[in-house]
């Protein structure tokens, strides 16, 4: 098809939109791909919609290739199924809730585990029907607290969500693997630079899960990779290699000291280097952070978290570690109610005396000696030995992860980077099939509870991610697989012959099945070239001054390379490029 | 592609669903095309989604053919634009409203005039950009009071809505005509039997509008056609041919009579035939129905509606006639407050005496004489002449339309039928461009207010309509253009050679680009044939007993015809059918 810019619904903007901070957002708006309709809610204009549909198609093809079957569920959903799994409440204010005219509670689907589970229960009853994988490419809704960066984190967005149903754990592992492979194929076709990280599964429930993160400075997710690249994990999912337990025999006894006004690790280290006969660093101290934790349906429990004093507690890691329990820092009221807890001087004993739970970083193992609070103002204990002088109630992954930390699998040290979540695959197990009692008749005549996987790809987000990773200072640059057009033909010569030549070229390309954007506007070549760079079609053909001499110009938007091609060979040259043979 | 029924997510049902009343609903559920998720909210299973997408594509191609440009707007919308046009309120409880986490009012878009208008205002500023037509194929939401018949009238549904923007009324008329033609092309391709009727435009505002109604006994819209078929209109839009005014000179004087207990037309006619020296029918009486009407922002006004006594007031026609005003029947309180209104004996004078407005049917013209109420209990006036004894404040189209009424354009008499609204085209004019002040710079340097058209097609509804019009007692029957598959190949022979032959045939068809549904299940031929009839793929190929003798069976689902074809010629025969050459 030929799309003429003279009548295309497209207005490029010279200036960045005021509310845009990240390059993809600026460029997608400036190039007329999307427009904001409400906070976190965007309209797709002709070029944007073409890219969105192209991304959808890549995803669809790869899902079909693993035998997943496409269906389409509604976005407007009844409350009951989400009530049954607890997610009506768990989603908190991220869920768009509404009532219909009869007062029935409804919601806009943020993800569809419940409905797919009910659907399979309704249709299938025998082991012979399994396994089955269903998917949809559908509009989803989440009332994000901070929608940002245009379509990168919207409140209405397009997602591919699929759900596998298997008879056995091995079957689930196979379905999971098939999705993992399909996602890798998708990202490869889209040209997205990504990393697969071990992830925690958040509100989704379930056990094994991995995230596909697009590597990007504007990402909101921090992940770490081992120096040889073989290990990668979401920071929340990093497992600290535990320290080696040591024999406590022969270690010096713990001694309490008056340390004066030393409520911080820095002041404590200063005191120790003055008062003790050794060099002390923050890593020799044990910092005890007090929080309270509440498991669903239970009371708050005061919890001390002991970490080496050179590290902070990373609250996101802490939250992930205790989920689905909630966690909060201890407030003034809590300290007032528990005089055993002396701020700035808290030790393991104080936590226990206050009836609390005491959890430690995995580095705090039996035989390690620490300088820590003595539970009296101005006092600390030196050489308090784990496993001898105190026994933690368990370990917790709450300490911050830092560049240079050892990778859990021994593949070197960790380096952190930023990423954008573009896919998430979960081995959910039986959380949802238990909630809805989804059994089929097994081969032996007994009921089998199905096991389930859930797999998502942010389709509209991928459009922004590709823009983010591929753009340059002049504008967008689309990989051929998702470009809104194959070729952008620019008339940059008012001569009648050149105009007719451009027209003929465009028609020949069209006849050959090439999607052509034809800049037939009465604008200056400069304006047209700038727009071509901004719009980012991979191949730009300029019918310009050289036409009189029998040549046209073929520009590669990605490499920036320019070729002079004889007019008679232009169609073949462009076709070769459009077919990826360039 | 080959879709194998052994692994297809499909379960056909023997029994009709309990909540289904119309054939399309029963069959689409029984054949596993759709499933109910909530009242008026449906999931599309694999076969249903294929038909839906096929209908979408036909609509898309025809919209593209008239130069309309596809975009995609959100479904979740801010309140403000709908507030600006009054539709936030006008839509009443048909609008799904919700609040986001910050308490901002939002809605689920029922139709998108406001957003498209704002979009064009934002992008375009010069007459050079016009005209432009934009469209989307998108999920819409209306909280129907009575969702019914599955996807025929859902609360979440897929619609194609387009919007034209023109500089002049002539331009709008041209855009409107282009849509009208495109809609006719779409219906022809889909094989839908339809009629185009003059319509009132309801809450949409604007002047000229027509509806595309699919002819169907299960339709909710009543329309009338003239006996020669050249006139058709929604009942609400029928214009009554006015009576011929006559000279009032020489007509008998009006005389009031004691008519006794005659509060109904029937009792009045009985009295008249006994008391007067002529034959009287209900058509000689003037029935005065009392209502109150409230224009937006004004007070209720008592209104008498005078219609020939052989006709009822059709409340839907009355509502359409007074829109956007509201109308209600007069209540006991109103009668109590207005003693001039004597129930059962109301005449034109009484309405005026009560300070009301008096409107009449267009048949009540100057010189017509009526028997009507004398505004006293037990009294009526005979020979009350319009234009002499009373002067109405105007006419109103509120009387029922009946089979046999004259067509307004003189093309015979009217016959009524039922239809399903599948398309609606509006010449909106400047209602929305006025609301948002959408001007562009005209050729003469002065601002030009744009004029607008709005055009909708119920895409998901069309799936039900096609099922409704095309089915037979055995199941669905799809036109090739939208069939979920081109060919349904059934193995009805357990012989290894036959199975291998079917497999080879299926692969050859697939290689030729035919979409094949392959019934490779281990079920009996009877079960498979029943399912094939239920599913409704246009061509069914049976590899059965004849295979040993070198033949297969090719069945036409539409005509029911069966052909024996030599195995070697099977692929060509099926290809010819799939290409519509059969």
From TrEMBL, chains A, B:
SUPFAM superfamilies: Class II aaRS ABD-related, Class II aaRS and biotin synthetases, YbaK/ProRS associated domain. The keyword Aminoacyl-tRNA synthetase applies. The keyword Protease does not apply. Its main location: cytoplasm. Its EC number is 6.1.1.15. GO terms for molecular function: aminoacyl-tRNA deacylase activity; ATP binding; proline-tRNA ligase activity. Coiled coil: none annotated. One of its GO terms (cellular component) is cytosol. PROSITE patterns: AA_TRNA_LIGASE_II (PS50862). GO terms for biological process: prolyl-tRNA aminoacylation. InterPro entries: aa-tRNA-synt_IIb, aa-tRNA-synth_II, aa-tRNA-synth_II/BPL/LPL, Anticodon-bd, Anticodon-bd_dom_sf, Pro-tRNA-ligase_IIa, Pro-tRNA-synth_IIa_bac-type, Pro-tRNA-Synthase_IIa_type1. Keywords: Aminoacyl-tRNA synthetase, ATP-binding, Cytoplasm, Ligase, Nucleotide-binding, Protein biosynthesis. It is found in: Cytoplasm. Residues 35-479 form the Aminoacyl-transfer RNA synthetases class-II family profile domain. It catalyses: tRNA(Pro) + L-proline + ATP = L-prolyl-tRNA(Pro) + AMP + diphosphate. It comes from the Bacteria. Belongs to the class-II aminoacyl-tRNA synthetase family. ProS type 1 subfamily. Consists of three domains: the N-terminal catalytic domain, the editing domain and the C-terminal anticodon-binding domain. Homodimer. Catalyzes the attachment of proline to tRNA(Pro) in a two-step reaction: proline is first activated by ATP to form Pro-AMP and then transferred to the acceptor end of tRNA(Pro). As ProRS can inadvertently accommodate and process non-cognate amino acids such as alanine and cysteine, to avoid such errors it has two additional distinct editing activities against alanine. One activity is designated as 'pretransfer' editing and involves the tRNA(Pro)-independent hydrolysis of activated Ala-AMP. This is Proline--tRNA ligase. The gene is proS.
